[in-house]
Write a structure and sequence with these properties.
about 30% helix; alpha+beta; single chain; 22 helices; 20 strands; Penicillin binding protein transpeptidase fold; 5-stranded antiparallel sheet; 5-stranded mixed sheet
């Protein structure tokens, strides 16, 4: 009878081509049981914590309502009304009425009184306990019991009943199977329910004490498989994320709870326009469902590896594809690792934490020289902070070379000049929300983080570089229409100019090195005819593997690992890189060739550089190459290390470079000296490095990415010196010792 009081029309989700990809009301997982099948402790637990006067009021708890009205008036109508009885909550769950106006509340009271007039109390309680939201797309206590404890509601113990009733206000916040450890929160809430049951004399002291002891020992959760009634219409991970975004938007704008917002978008017959490109989404799902990405845990054979991938159209911030797990998706609105898991990033953070702010502030150029050698930084401890490059030290190298092979020491030295505080400021501008005061240390340069970063936020940050320095908040939908076609909600994205187009171009060009360079850690990511920028990431003990990158069309981020930290063993290949490469090559098939465009104007300059000194090159400098610079940052000195007095002299240039053996600055603004700063030793250090140059590689002509063209960029300044007019200049040769160890990223390349 209560059901007859409302109309229930499922909402539709459309992809970018206008195709219906989900009917939200059709995948709700629920299973009704009678009140007699529910244990008394379960019914009493809900009554105790939700509506202690349920059996005595007539639909509206007047004392609670009065208090709610006073609060509403005190806050000038800006707060949630609250004070709802179980009968009122049933009305809300059935109608999806979400207006924050007082008229909505009055209408709710009327309907509650009406229900109480035609239904018995036990009928109301039974309907309520069968319809309430208890977990990810799970409704009703029967499936809630199955999901959390893998048993029927009739089998629940007292403490388990208390837990289930206690999470009612925010089930997702108390989920024991999520990425975060909620055990303390769960324990506290469960004890609150038990205390209330004791107070209301639903249980005695002995029952209470026994239950409290079991809660302290830890509730025995066992995730039960929930079969969808319509398994052919399980939401994609993209739709999962879309629902969560819309719930948040509606709840915030209408000042209602997430539960009520959920019911509204599922039952109000809405038309939701998503940003999902189904061709891209299908390709992503196909790749991540492959058996080769499903590794068994060495600790628990029932636990398997996981992965997540996000693809964004950087020009508008639209998330065109999103996958939050490996294998076949078996339920809707479960854990979405693409948006809800926060992981250590390793070297994937280097472009965000180091390169972006350092280039923008003109602390470095791509040609700046740093000494890559074993270095101990003063962190206030006796032993100091000693990040490593796994002994793959390269001596004096340019920033470009450090990016190519992902050397660690140069990035830490740059971070010292930059300061971690400045890095955090930039990363926040690029959409990273999880950084804390604890992250203000040098290990930030190597991706050592307090809380980690989600694949979605990593993708949005990289998209800022790809989008010429403009950050656009990622979104999963564009607008929502009601049943009569009226737009009731539009997405509101934050737009922020973080970098100039010139800085963004320098970054794009630098990040092509891991793809095109001879020692690049992402050289398997090439796409024919299309520029690719990418960066790998690896955390300590191989717990996490990342590939973050972009083309002129799309930005994509891939993570691979176990939910609980465990070393990844993947046949000496990078699984994230394999996923990224396979998907991106497929979705770019048929797209026009496209390069990273040099910004118009004269704010980008070029010069021929000696890679050994980072200075302006002479014709006698081996492996010289053309480098890009922001206007005003060209080196002002010429290399004398490779000066050949027999060469044709064509300029009168005074060179003021100091003897290299003194390790004084080679070129401004960078100094080759060991910096010192404080650095805690209790955070993860990325362990990514590279294979050193072989003698053969050292004799090759260096050809860094110059927009894939051999022509000089328009409106740029070119400096190509030959030999200086100096006397008795000694030609010196740098002697660098190389080892034969293998870079951790190279061992995982495809």
């Amino acid at each position: 009878m209560a059901q007859d009081m409302i109309s229930n029309s499922p909402s539709q989700v459309l992809d970018t081509d206008g195709n219906v990809i989900a009917e939200l009301g059709n995948t709700k997982n629920t299973k009704n049981i009678s009140l007699s099948e529910m244990p008394d402790n379960l019914k009493n637990a809900y009554i105790s914590i939700e509506d202690q006067r349920f059996y005595s009021h007539s639909g509206v708890d007047l004392p609670r309502t009065g208090a709610a009205i006073l609060s509403y008036i005190k806050n000038l109508g800006s707060s949630s009304f609250g004070g709802s009885s179980i009968t009122q909550q049933l009305v809300k769950n059935l109608t999806g009425d979400n207006s924050s106006k007082i008229t909505r509340k009055i209408n709710e009271w009327i309907k509650a009184f009406g229900i109480e007039g035609v239904l018995e109390k036990d009928e109301i309680l039974e309907a309520y306990l069968n319809i309430i939201y208890v977990g990810p797309n799970i409704y009703g206590v029967e499936l809630g019991s199955k999901y959390y404890f893998n048993k029927s509601a009739s089998e629940l113990t007292l403490e388990e009943c208390a837990f289930l009733a206690g999470i009612n206000n925010s089930p997702n916040s108390y989920n024991p199977f999520g990425d975060k450890d909620n055990s303390e929160k769960i324990t506290k809430r469960t004890k609150t329910v038990l205390s209330k049951m004791l107070e209301l004399k639903y249980i005695n002291e002995d029952d209470y004490s026994t239950a409290i002891s079991k809660v302290d020992e830890g509730l025995k959760f066992k995730n039960g498989k929930i079969e969808s009634e319509n398994s052919n219409n399980i939401y994609s991970y993209h739709t999962d994320a879309l629902i969560n975004e819309i719930i948040s938007d509606i709840a915030n704008k209408k000042n209602i709870s997430n539960n009520f917002a959920t019911n509204y978008i599922e039952m109000a017959g809405l038309k939701i326009y998503s940003t999902q490109d189904s061709k891209i989404q299908t390709e992503m799902e196909k790749e991540l469902s492959k058996n080769k990405y499903i590794l068994k845990s060495s600790n628990d054979p029932e636990v398997t590896s996981q992965a997540a991938m996000v693809i964004i159209n950087q020009s508008n911030g639209y998330v065109v594809g999103c996958v939050g797990g490996t294998g076949k998706k078996e339920t809707s609105r479960g854990l979405n690792r693409a948006t809800q898991s926060y992981r250590q990033t390793g070297s994937a953070s280097k472009p965000l934490a180091v390169l972006t702010p350092a280039i923008d502030k003109k602390i470095i150029t791509p040609a700046s020289i740093y000494l890559d050698e074993a270095t101990t930084f003063d962190d206030g401890t006796e032993e100091g902070y000693s990040p490593t490059d796994y002994n793959h030290y390269k001596g004096e190298i340019t920033v470009r070379e450090a990016v190519e092979s992902s050397q660690n020491i140069p990035f830490v030295k740059i971070m010292e000049q930059l300061t971690p505080k400045t890095s955090i400021e930039y990363m926040k501008k690029m959409g990273i929300t999880t950084l804390t005061k604890t992250d203000e240390n040098l290990n930030l340069a190597l991706g050592g983080l307090d809380k980690g970063i989600s694949p979605l936020e990593m993708a949005a940050a990289y998209a800022t570089i790809a989008n010429d320095g403009k950050y656009i908040e990622p979104t999963f939908y564009t607008k929502i229409e009601n049943q009569v076609g009226k737009t009731i909600l539009k997405t509101t994205q934050k737009h922020k100019n973080v970098l100039s187009k010139e800085v963004a171009f320098i970054l794009k060009n630098l990040l092509t090195e891991p793809v095109t360079g001879a020692n690049g850690t992402a050289n398997y990511c090439k796409i024919s005819g299309i520029d690719v920028a990418a960066k790998t990431g690896t955390t300590n003990d191989d717990f996490d593997r990342w590939l973050c990158g972009f083309t002129p069309y799309y930005t994509a981020t891939t993570w691979f690992g176990f939910d609980k930290n465990e070393t990844i063993k993947f046949n000496n290949k990078n699984p994230s890189g394999q996923i990224w490469s396979s998907v991106m090559k497929t979705i770019h098939s048929g797209l026009s060739s496209k390069k990273f465009e040099i910004p118009s104007g004269n704010n980008i300059e070029t010069a021929t550089i000696c890679p050994k000194t980072g200075l302006l090159a002479y014709t006698s400098c081996p492996n010289s190459y053309t480098e890009y610079f922001l206007k005003g940052t060209l080196p002002n000195e010429y290399c004398i290390q490779h000066y050949n007095s027999t060469s044709t002299q064509s300029s009168n240039i005074k060179n003021t470079v100091s003897n290299k053996e003194t390790q004084t600055p080679i070129s401004e603004p960078v100094e080759i000296q060991t910096p010192t700063t404080s650095e805690p030793d209790n955070v993860q250090i990325n362990t990514e490095s590279s294979t050193p140059f072989t003698p053969e590689e050292q004799t090759q002509t260096r050809e860094p990415n110059t927009n894939s063209q051999n022509t000089t960029p328009e409106n740029t300044t070119i400096v190509t010196p030959t030999t200086p007019d100096t006397d008795n200049t000694e030609n010196t040769t740098e002697d660098t010792t190389q080892d034969n160890l293998t870079d951790i990223d190279d061992t995982f390349e495809q």
